[in-house]
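Weekly sync notes, structure subgroup
Attendees: PM, AL, DS (notes)

Item 1: joint prediction request from the bench team. They want all three components modeled as one assembly rather than separately. Inputs as received:
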Amino acid sequence: MTGATPTPARTPDADAGAVYQLTVNGTPLTVEGSRPTDSLLHVLRDRLGLPGAKNACEQGECGSCSVLVDGMLVCACLELAEAAVGCEITTVEGLTPVGAEPGDAALTGAVLTDVQQAMIEAGGVQCGFCTPGFIVAIQDLLGRVPEPGPLEVREALAGNLCRCTGYGRILAAIERVVAVRGNGR
Amino acid sequence: MTPVRASTGVEAPSARGGAASVAGIGDSPVRPDGTPKVQGGFAFASDLEADGMLWGRTLRSPHAHARLRSVEIGRAFAIPGVSCVLTADDVPGTATYGLISPDQPVFARDVVRYMGEPVAAVAADHPDTARRALAAIAVDYEPLDPLVDPTRAASVETPPIHPDGNVIRHIRIDHGDPAATGDVVVEGVYEVGMQDQAFLGPESGLAIPDGDGGVDLWVATQSLHEDRDQLAACLGLPHEQVRLHLGGVGGAFGGREDLSIHVHACLLALRTGRPVKMSYLRDESFVGHVHRHPARMRYRHHATTAGDLVKIEAQVLLDGGAYASSSWAVVSNAARFACGPYRVPNALVDATVVRTNNPPCGAMRGFGAVQVCFGHESQMDKLATRLGMDPVELRVRNALETGDVLPTGQRLTGAVPVAECIRAAVEHPLPTTSSDGWLERPGGAGRTAEASRVRRGVGVAAGFKNLMYSEGAEDDSEARVRLSEGVASITCAVAEVGQGFVTIASQIARTVLGCDAVVEPAGTVGIGSAGSSSASRQTWMSGGAVLRAAREVAVQVRSALAERLGVAPGSLTLTDDGRIVAAAAGEAAGGGRALDMTVAEAAGDGIFEATAVQRHRRTYQLDERGQGDADVSFVFAAHRAVVDVDTDLGLVRVVQVTTGQDVGRMLHPTQVIGQIEGGIAQGVGLAVMEEIVVEDGVVRNPSFTDYLIPTVADTPEVLATCIEQPEPEAPFGAKGAGEPPTISSTAAVAAAIRAATGVDVTRVPVRPWDLI
Amino acid sequence: MTVLAPTRLDDAVAALAADSSLTVLAGGTDLMVAVNYGQYRPAGVLSLRRVPELHDWHVEGEGSAAHVVLGAATSYTTLLDPALAALVPALAQASRTVGSPQIRNTGTIGGNLGTASPAGDTLPVLVALDATVELASASGRRRMPVSEFVTGPKRTALAPGELVTAVRVPIARGPQEFLKIGVRNAMVIAVANCALVLDLGRRHLACALGSVGPVPMRDRDAERWAEARLDWDGRPALDHALVDDFGRRMATISRPIDDHRATAAYRRHAVEVLARRALARAWVAT
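Output from the run, pasted for the record:
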């Protein structure tokens, strides 16, 4: 019984759906006790102990639940979990620094990606509710477009709402990452 | 004055050095909760779970006004997995609660007064089961005509919709000579729509019964002790048995000052003996918290032909919705700030907040000052036009200064850099005209813009409000600092809602004690109230409490060290950057070497602890003429907005917003910039896109699909100048930075739209059809 | 509740034939909102994620008979692909305005058709281009114009047991425009939208309006009126009076309503502006 550390709920469930496997962050995970109509968001958070994707709207209007499915940025709240069987799912918890393999035990959770580091340093995090979604969306963008122009960045992130920051420090963080990566090339 | 540019790509530099130590005040260290937040591991209230937990949900009225004839819960209980169903009969303590007066029922009985009013609650094994249980509860409503017109609500002829009456508060400010007039008179009627805080983290909490009749509640809130007091009363339990802990908060902006899931979750937990989690979906969130008061304002400004304000008359009507919440204080703010940050020798202000069957309204960032700012700044522009004066010059000419007297009779004794804020806002270079693609044109990716039909306009506005609570409200904050093994641990019940209190608290302790600091999880146990995270007060009150406690610890350490060295404590000096130094050789022990170490080092193996309370001087309730020293301190800001408008379609793009903001002193420059950029985005939202649409008391757009907040494709370039004139009574001289960015940014955007279109914009948010 | 995930189109059709109560799931961007909010409980789901031909597109025919055939599960992001955008520019322009990148990666043209919202952004484009839908069921395949498929607000001619398999879009030779009005720059439901297509070879103009009627609004009389008066040989010289007149005519065919997003009067005014701007822009485009 603890408040602070989220753990998967173990309440028995009469309407439980099928048992199936989802490949999340490189690892096959068994899903038990979910409801058939559960979204991927619910399964990640309530069954698989991965609460990084957030539930700000569950309508696809805020991006707080952004994850990658087969390498594409999507809203986990709009994915039927059971229909994601066979897909490669990446959550914020599975992002690793450039050059590392997903699921690299020594790195997962211990080291921040350059995007995560820049977000903190630039002041792009206030309440943090939008943050995981932004981290996934930014990593996706920079992975596809290494040097996006300012308008390209805005269009690419228009699906991620933030209510605290006004986006200024988030954009500053992205500029920082692009500059550093550019220098490293 | 320390200019800090906040445009994208330019770093906010630290404030000038000197007393600031590395990662101490004046620096911009990373926030202590930053790492878990970027990794997705930070536990928000909606992430919390407990073994054996049930899910709670609330049944809410679909009617804005109805007689509640019966609530039949039997069929809900028949659903497998449903553990508990509660109604008004199940509230053991006080049936009602409220921030100022307890007028709001935990569950409705006999009547429902707004769409969304709670009628029952259930606990079940899964959120879906809980939802089915709600659908199985049979409620017999007899719909009644809703009272939705605030003007009617203000009339004595209208039957009260609540035992406390329909007029929640009326304030009159009568200042100077009521018969005074000016050579030039301008009038106007203005309206502000209902804005929503729209914080991203939904209302959430987890209640865990302790098996002894008491309960622990983890909840996202703005004020733990305030919640605890109301909650305990409703549960009929003493305070010791109701323990609140802060669950991670996903933004607040005033929307979490009132109770949300608290009583329902705790009652369900106590009744079932199991943990109960509640987390609202977005549609429930939109009806589950208070909104910003819609306002109708009538103004008349009198001035001399030279442009000096002679008199302001204002009538302000706020729609408080069904329950009072903090309306009593909001209307006072609206009245006290109705004239704007100007010298006004004569003023007559009548401000009323009424009760209707519209959604309840209460605190939202700016708290009444936002609405009247749109009124008084629209008037100032009208006056400038009538006088043939430049709008900036008119404002600067009348700008308040230290020593001036407000329409409440209160004399300004602190820093009052109004003119400086205005000049700073307009000093920034105007944006160049850009044609860099559709996103930079009104209409955006919709590709509607036609360049020859786009007009650019520039507008300016200034505003102010109070810092801290007013009119005698208790405002104290308590903090404890404990120094042990080289780390300072801070205990304070401040609700960290994203604003970064945890960061500056650490900086303060670091600055005083010269060591790393950690902030303990916030809760009601073992520490007194910190007051709410609102009214831009926490830096002053809780930062101040942490400062006091840390200084006491430093004094204790110095005494202990002095005793060890066999010298008088006075021979050791505590420096501004957390060190203890001694005068030259001979005074210190150890062979004549000068002593110089951090307080933490000097503490050695000892454990030192101090608890301190920060208070401020007394404030007074306004008298029957609205006179009284109601406030401790004031904060000022000005904004300039540049907009492009498609004049055929009425679509607006906000290109740039600049600001000069009175900050006193920046304890954490990057966090200040974050408040400015975030607040300006909310101000832009109120100007052009955000409105809770209510028809006959029913909310028509309770979703992010149709309650539109700015995306990153909508926010303007922001350039900020932070004006540092230390506030004499404030710890570090720092003023709260959260609210000023929202107060005059909306009015500046509206003024820019007027300039671009020539349309007399008299309401915000502006809709496209208002402009064509 | 079963979740079927066939890998072949024939299997998908057969599954739907065997159980027409199955809910078809492509992108899910409309369906899952209703599911998340408890407004809809599918009895069974037929996921189309793994059916390759539904996600592919190709060109058929040549010259004036050339078509793009879009699998029904073609996403908005795919519609933005430069190769496709070159063939159907207005569809790419419309797709860019839909939702967010997350929605565009997931949502599909088949879903836009199946939902048939009056504000659906691809619908006016498809109607203006005289696109047809391909439907498959156990009884076989059939086609019908999109303008007949969308029958009313959120209503289609889809029969029980039937699946939208493809959308066939004629490749027009000429400029195309799609314009959409929303109060925000992204993630906004159209207050009004307008698709305009010029076929320079055939001297043909088509213009369809969205969000101003129960279905996309199009009027052949207004189009013929404009076709007869446009100086096709004199392009790009622009007759402003003609363009303005065209805008007015399009406004008269609209049947907008008042709702929480906009007033009918504004919508009527807006489509006049959109139609005239779309024509002016398309006319002078190279």
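Discussion: Chain C has a mean pLDDT of 96.
Action: AL to compare against the crosslinking data before next sync.
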